[in-house]
Known about the structure:
Elements: H1 5-10, H2 14-23, H3 35-57, H4 60-66, H5 69-93, H6 103-125, H7 131-141, H8 145-164
Amino acid sequence: METSVGDCWIGLPLPVCMEMSEDDNNMEEYPTEIHDYLTAFEKSLGSVDEMLKTMMSVSRNELLQKLDPLEQAKLDLVSVYTLNSMFWVYLATQGINPKEHPVKQELERIRTYMNKVKEIADKKKASKLDKGAASRFVKNALWEPNAEKEHTSKTSAKGKKQQRD
């Protein structure tokens, strides 16, 4: 049975196909220059698979109960963005230009919402101004000529009082 790289993506795991193609150089249907790229792609797929297994091991309701609403929105956006990105890659592997497919608008829409959530998170992290403390700080930092005269007269009065004692 002859196996191609395309069959690997559909049926057999990529390492099995790569071992088969390394055993028999006549069966190799892809240029050797892309071997490193395929290896990196295989590692990336393994990472995605592990991440998905981790996410799927916990029920969605359990996970959402542990998160605040902002974190829930982030999780939902990342999930839907990942799914649409994977569909983008699928379209590209099928010879369909994803830039001309509605998935492009969907990814842009999701990015817009991701930016909105990021703005909200940034506003939440920003320090809040204590208006009372700020006004006291400014009031005390500003020079007031009348206050200095009063301060000077109080100081001189203390000095005269200390001299009498």
